[in-house]
Design brief:
heterodimer; A: 422 residues; alpha/beta; 40% helix; B: alpha+beta; 3-stranded antiparallel beta sheet; 14% strand
């Protein structure tokens, strides 16, 4: 297993490795003990921990220049506005968007997707139309489409997967037809770690003039994101999965399409002029940003991205790849353990099952050992139905995890097996 | 357990049993053992309407009354939950509806298992307790009719 071939990982120089290993100290939450043992945090696919620069940025905003943005003329408002807008510029670079007008702040991936469903969906999807998703979507990239489809009489089509957890691209091609109005596919599976061939997915849709949305929630902390290279119409992700704060996220959209579709919510900031008779909408990106946004968290998000940039995505990827390979090797030695999801292209997410043991028991006992993993269906219930299981245990790694922690996981799993041996 | 033992008596009995177990390994090993002692769940009652769905594990619950007392049978697909199900059935089964409705199950706190009844654990146990009390309430109104 390796990390995406489209994203070559360079060998990690000693210098870079040293930098990554030291980065752990930037995350205060990781130095605590649970049940008298040092915490091992392996639930990074759910949310990543925050470096001190991010929490400092939150405190600095509230204690230094808390003010509403865009309309104030006083010094604090100007500082807040300029910090807020500078995040937009950093996000633009981070995903290589052509302009900041195409970077919209939302509450997170889920809201980004709902925004597209409510605007593009309402305008362009009608009875008998088809929306393509994949069999490995999490609920956020399924439920908004199901709601829309029910409202409009449209249909959801699902790209099937093989037993390794990879999309069957041949089947995908067969699903594309003149009724297809949207392809909405996850970049990286949160449950299996599979990296989807999103560039190819988009390009096949584009050949038929179909709009595309890529759900990048799990991809942005691991992979280089280049929305121009992908050529996708929409790209959605959350700050909190890229070492940033919760409650904020991004919707990237191509300018032409964002100008064409109606606003998402009505209220302050998204209007230019309002009279009793009606209103005119503001320019991009403000047209989609009604109301006072999550100012502090958006500002702190910039610091998260700058932090990631300072370490270097390719260094992070190379390091996480080492962790993944090490974990694969060590966990393979455990009798009765099976991996769920063995795609050739995957990020540092390992889902597994222990023979005869319920995943919840695994999670509870590992928690007693101060090892935080995720168990359950990971908000991908249709995928669980496809795999015919009720859930998995999932360990997902981030830049601050270590091989020693993986050794702890292995020991913990052996303990789970011993305690539950019948 | 005598026929006349109250819920409080049984709770004390359980707290006493757990008081000999010092570290969490022993406690959880004991809970897992207790799960194995749970009486087999009658297969005819293992149906969808008897499932209490948690986010992670499932619990089956069936109840009936005899001589004004409420009896429970239950099961779970996860072992730790199953052990806790055993404790709940042992505590609540065979009592008058009123006694069941009023109990606060404080023993779970005393044996260090209270976190399993927290709303965030989403393992079906909290829902199971609610359901047991609801059953008791339903039988109570039936009995008083």
């Amino acid at each position: 297993m390796s990390i995406g071939s489209e994203q070559p990982t360079q060998a990690l120089s000693e210098n870079s490795l040293d930098k990554i290993l030291k980065a752990r100290n930037d995350f205060p939450v990781l130095s605590q003990e649970i049940n008298g043992k040092p915490l091992v945090y392996f639930d990074n696919a759910a949310t990543t921990q925050k470096p001190k620069v991010v929490t400092d940025a939150l405190v600095n905003y509230y204690s230094g220049y808390n003010a509403n943005i865009h309309r104030g003329i006083h010094t604090l408002a100007e500082k807040a506005t300029s910090e807020f807008e500078s995040t937009r510029a950093v996000v633009k670079e981070f995903i290589n968007a052509p302009s900041t007008e195409e970077v919209i702040f939302t509450k997170g991936t889920t809201e980004s997707i709902n925004l597209v469903a409510s605007t593009f969906g309402r305008k362009y999807i009608g009875e008998g139309d088809e929306i393509i998703v994949s069999a490995i979507e999490h609920h956020s990239n399924m439920v908004p489409w199901q709601i829309l489809a029910a409202e409009k009489g449209a249909k959801i089509k699902v790209i099937p997967i093989n037993d390794e957890g990879e999309l069957l691209m041949g089947e995908y091609k067969k699903l594309l037809n003149e009724r297809t109005k949207l392809v909405a596919v996850v970049h990286v599976s949160n449950t299996l770690g599979t990296i989807n061939p999103v560039k190819e997915i988009v390009s096949l849709a584009k050949e038929k003039g179909i709009t595309t949305l890529i759900d990048g929630a799990q991809a942005t902390s691991h992979l280089d994101i280049d929305v121009q290279d992908l050529d996708t119409d929409f790209y959605a992700f959350s700050a909190h999965k890229v070492y940033g704060p919760t409650g904020t996220g991004i919707l990237y959209g191509k300018k032409a399409i964002l100008e064409d579709i109606p606003p998402y919510q009505g209220g302050g900031e998204m209007i230019q002029e309002v009279s009793y008779e009606g209103c005119s909408f503001n320019v991009l990106p403000y047209k989609f940003e009604a109301g006072t946004p999550n100012i502090a968290d958006v500002i702190a998000f910039k610091h998260a991205l700058e932090y990631v940039n300072s370490l270097g995505k390719s260094n992070i990827r190379a390091y996480e790849n080492q962790l993944l390979e090490y974990a694969n090797e060590k966990l393979s030695e455990i009798k009765g353990l099976t991996f769920v999801g063995t795609a050739k292209e995957k990020v540092s997410v390992i889902s597994f099952l222990l023979e005869g043991i319920h995943h919840q028991d695994t999670g509870i006992i590992l928690d007693q050992e101060a090892i935080a993993i995720r168990t359950g269906h990971h908000c991908t219930q249709p995928l669980m139905q496809r795999l015919n299981i009720s859930g998995t245990a999932r360990a997902s790694f981030a830049l601050y995890n270590t091989k020693e922690e993986i050794d702890r996981l292995v020991k913990g799993i052996l303990k789970v097996q011993k305690m539950l041996a019948s | 357990m005598s026929e006349t033992a109250s819920i409080a008596d049984i709770e004390n009995e359980i707290v006493e049993e757990f008081s000999f177990l010092d570290d969490w390994d022993d406690k959880y090993t004991y809970v897992i053992e207790l799960g194995r002692k749970l009486e087999p769940f009658p297969e005819e009652h293992r149906k969808d309407e008897n499932i209490i769905k948690g986010c992670q594990s499932r619990v089956w619950l069936h109840s009936y009354t005899e001589n004004g007392k409420v009896y429970f049978k239950a099961d779970s697909d996860a072992m730790i939950v199953k052990g806790l199900v055993y404790l709940l059935v042992r505590t609540l089964s065979g009592h008058a509806p009123d006694e069941i409705i009023k109990t606060d199950l404080s023993f779970l706190d005393k044996i260090g298992m209270k976190q399993h009844l927290s709303p965030t654990r989403s393992n079906g146990l909290l829902a199971m307790v609610k359901q047991m009390k609801l059953h008791a309430l339903a039988y109570k109104s039936k009995i008083s009719e």
